[in-house]
Amino acid sequence: MSGLQSISGIAQDIAEAIKAAFSMDVEIVDKNLKRIAATGVAKNKIDQSMNFGTASNEVLKSGEVIVIKSNEHPICKICPGKGKCTYFGGIISPLFFNKKVIGTINLVSYDEMKMNQIYEKRQELIDFINKMGELLTSKIMERALYLEQKELMSELKKMVNTSPFGVISFDEDYKVKYFNPLAKEILNLNDLHDYLINKLFKDLSFSAFESLDTSDVYEGIVESVEGLQLSVTIHNFINSKGTKDFIIFIHPLFNKKVNKVNNVSISDIIGNSPKMKDVKVLAKKFSNSPSTILITGESGTGKDLIARAIHYESNRREKPFVVVNCGAIPDTLIESELFGYEKGAFTGANSYGKPGKFELANKGTIFLDEISTMPYYLQSRLLTAIQNRQIDRIGGTKTITLDVRIIAATNENLDMLVKNKKFRSDLFYRLNVLPIDLPPLRDRQKDILLISQHIIKKLNSFLGRSVQEMDDQTKELLLGYHWEGNIRELENVLEYAMNLLHPNDQIIKEEHLPYYIIDCKQQEKDGSSPQTIEKLERNQIAQLLNQWGDSLQAKQKISSTLGISISTLYRKIKRYDLHHYS
Fold first, then answer.
1. Are residue 201 and residue 265 in the same domain, yes or no?
2. Number of folded domains that form the chain
3. What is the 3-state secondary structure (H, E, C) of 185-228?
4. Most buried one in 211, 408, 533, 554, CB count within 10 A?
5. Residue 256 has what pLDDT?
6. 158 lies in some domain
7. No. of H helices and E strands in the chain?
8. In whole angstroms, what is the distance from residue 167 CA to residue 163 CA?
9. 38 & 130 share domain
10. Are the beta carbons of 18 and 129 closer than 8 angstroms?
11. Do 304 and 389 fall within a single domain?
């Protein structure tokens, strides 16, 4: 659709206005010589192209006005319609848009008298037509801006409606103006229009909004009318009317429907060995207790899985389960991560403060993994939080009371750390109220093959394979290995083996296992001492080079299988004197 066609209604109104003012007929033509608007006999020819249009075509090219007094005008002499034309004369004026001619406004006469009138008033008429042309092009601009804004709003709505957050906008009176489908779903309401903020959130006060400057952002934890804990972020801006509007981004801290994939019950935990049966009985008994639980066990035994299962079995299952890996957070940040901070508490702090992990876990469970790495200076503050179920944000003056159950986990001997004065004894006793000790995989041999089948099934989905089982030799090797890395090491071994399989193979065999698994069994038979890690690694790399070759493509495959870079593989080949492969 051309620019003129987009405002054909307005063009017709202008044509009628010119006729009313001067009692002369008008045609408005686009760059394709198509009539967009017309009066008089030409009105029936709207949307039709002009038969000849030689004068209009010339104006489209030159951008100059043409005044035709009679059909003896030079332009008429070259017109193929000479002698057939019904016009006696007129004014053909260009229409400009963005400095380009997009059409013409034609003031036409069908008899000599009108033609003489046009010629006598030609300058006055040209000036008026130019004004009408400017009005037309301004309307085209308005239309283009409107369509552009409409398209932009459509794109913005798509973005908002597909946002991973619920989005609600409020006006200055705290009344809902707009909301996306996810906001409606989170709040479990069919319609949010005209709702006031305090009818949607239990503990979000108007003061939180009134204190916001346009550069401020509010972040906090609130509860919906349905009792769902939500993390909210509030922004504000000045709208086109000069008043303040607000946008709230909401996200459930825990939502059963959204997090179903992460739910695991105690009965889902694989293990029929006596020691694991005892663990599951304890976990079931402790699940509804508000007392602190300490899960101990070697790395890779599944402490996080037990913690998640306890939460899911408890009466807090609908509330947040917040994981904090204490060993993964720098010492300088862990205090603010755990307890949050107030506005301006330190350089670089969020302009409105930030809730910590304890606040996010309110009414649910906080899982403090690798608790043994907690900095000593911070252990007394953690002890206070656990004892009193109260925290203070950094830089804050208000004590926040919480209802949160604490589960901690460690792979280190906390007794020994206490004796060495690296861990506070009072914190240890406060954590060790309900202890659960996870056995290493080597002490639950009965579970190794069960867990292996579960891992194979999971890896089939991940790797796009259809492995069904392991042969007897493979099972024997897995059962005889010492598994220092526990379940995590077993997962790595099986993923390694499945990557070695041909795409259509369905059985894991001894030849697919890492060299050190096979070598370990051979050493037991020979009665020799265990190999060093370096020797095992050398043998494994040598085995893969023998199997796949020494091409660049083969080495890339080996590095990917071992989880190292190609440059690291070359260094190891050099280090282990495997030069004939380099």
1. no
2. 5
3. HHHCCCCCCCCEHHHCECCCCCHHHHCCCCCCCEEEEEEECCCC
4. 408
5. 41
6. no
7. 21, 19
8. 8
9. yes
10. yes
11. yes
The model's pLDDT over 350-362, given as tens digits with 9 standing for 90+, comes to: 545 678 889 888 8
Q: Is 327 exposed, middle or buried (0-12, 13-18, 19+ CB in 10 A)?
A: middle
Which amino acid, 492?
N
Q: Rounded CA gap, 330 and 348, in Å?
A: 16
pLDDT higher than threshold 70 for residue 58: yes
Last residue of a domain, one of 481, 511, 541: 511
Residue 224, domain CATH? 3.30.450.20
Q: Please, are residues 346 and 394 in contact by the beta-carbon 8 Å criterion?
A: yes
In a domain, 23, yes or no: yes
Structural domain that includes position 563: 532-582
pLDDT digits over 129-145, tens only? 888 888 888 888 888 78
**Residue closest to 427 by CA, chosen among 389, 382, 392:** 382
Cα radius of gyration rounded to whole Å, the chain: 40
Q: Are 516 and 540 in contact (CB under 8 A)?
A: yes
Q: Is the pLDDT of residue 195 over 50?
A: yes
272 and 378 share one domain: yes
CA distance 341 to 472: 58
CATH for 399: 3.40.50.300
Paired sense of beta strands 25-30 and 100-109, if any: antiparallel
250, two tokens? 């909401």
Are 428 and 457 found together in one domain? no
Last residue of a domain, one of 439, 471, 499: 439
